[in-house]
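Project standup — Tuesday

K.O.: blocked on the structure for the chain from last sprint. Re-posting the sequence here as requested.
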Amino acid sequence: MSLFWCIIIYGDRMENKLKRIVNILKDNGKTISTMESCTGGAIVNAITNVPGASTVLNFSAITYSNDFKVKMGVDKNIIDKYTVYSKETARGMAKAISDFALSSYGIGITGKLGKRDPKNKCGNDNQVFMCIYDKGIDKYIDFDIFVDRDNRRDDKKEVLEEVVDRLLSYLEK
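H.V.: unblocked you, prediction finished:
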């Protein structure tokens, strides 16, 4: 997808924020990886729309099932104790992907986008948990939002905007 399509889908402001994120990471010799569930790769897709993203993006995974979250390194006990839809699971995802990909930063996203999950009945239907993990200082930046748009694409866009804003704010400190 070209930057032209990035502008159409996300807008000029989002494109500029994504460029700044990639440039900050490049300038500081840092890397990033994502483990996404309900967003289906929306975050990594947006990052890869920026020219030069390949110099900062190590790896990403879309892990819809609990089994694959565990296979990627999330502790099964965390999912069992706190549920797959929790801050703790988002943390586990962020750290596991950072460790797996040897990345400076990991992003973990889990939640429900308006649909009941018959395999995981607990948790709010429109709550998304996100975490940015900074491996260099072993720090977790946790946040969550409630989304309730007319369709999943708009929900994903809202989550993307929140993650990009939080990540950029953290990197610019």
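K.O.: great, moving the ticket to review. DSSP finds seven helices and five strands in the chain. The beta strands are 32-36, 57-62, 105-111, 127-134, 139-146.
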